[in-house]
Amino acid sequence: MSFDTLFKFEQDLAEYTGAPYAVVTDCCTHAIELCLRLDKVSKLSFTAYTYLSIPQMMRNLQIDYELLDEPWIGEYKFHGTNIWDSARRLERDMYIAGRRQCLSFGNTKPLHLGKCGAILLDNYDDYLILSRMRSNGRDLRQSPWNDHPVTVGFHYCPTIETCQQGIEKLPTINQTPMAVEYPDCRLITYV
To answer: Which residues face 45 on adjacent strands?
Structure first.
């Protein structure tokens, strides 16, 4: 297997969702993080009923955030941005222009792959930047990568085996947006 498998999964995911581009990551939280870093977000608000990694990530990134009493099914918006946490949603032609929709393929998600995520988007320049960011700052299409410039990046690339599973399972998923009750993250105590 090679990175061609990763690119094929991204292409299949983009075609399935109707997004011009998809960047596959190792998890949804990291997909969101890359979008926040790209946009240099310093302040936003979002639902208090989310996975606990989200407010913890905001703290780690030193982003000023407000948790809202806002119910949701399938996806929710990070207000003040064009970023959506679409962790519980994966449907054919779901992409909405101008958004960055971050997907999760973790346990109990519509496409269960274990630890994996993605960003759906429509800006080619952002696609190139986010692709490099998730791959330690490398352009995985360049070989050997050490002959080309490396930018700041993160070790957020999924395994090739996970991408292969994604290619195989994508046509078989359940398309119903999922409603799941998350605890109120306003009750998190930090020590």
So the answer is: 66, 79
Torsion sign across C-alpha atoms 189, 181, 178, 116: positive
What would the pLDDT profile of 103-123 be if each residue is shown by its tens digit? Answer: 999 888 889 998 999 999 999
Closest CA to 10 of 18, 22, 27: 22
Instruction: Write down the CATH number for the domain with range 3-187.
Output: 3.40.640.10
This prediction has a pTM of 0.94
Closest residue by Cα to residue 90 from 76, 100, 104:
104
Q: What is the pLDDT of residues 17-72, one digit of tens each?
A: 999 999 999 999 999 999 999 999 999 999 999 999 999 999 999 999 999 999 99
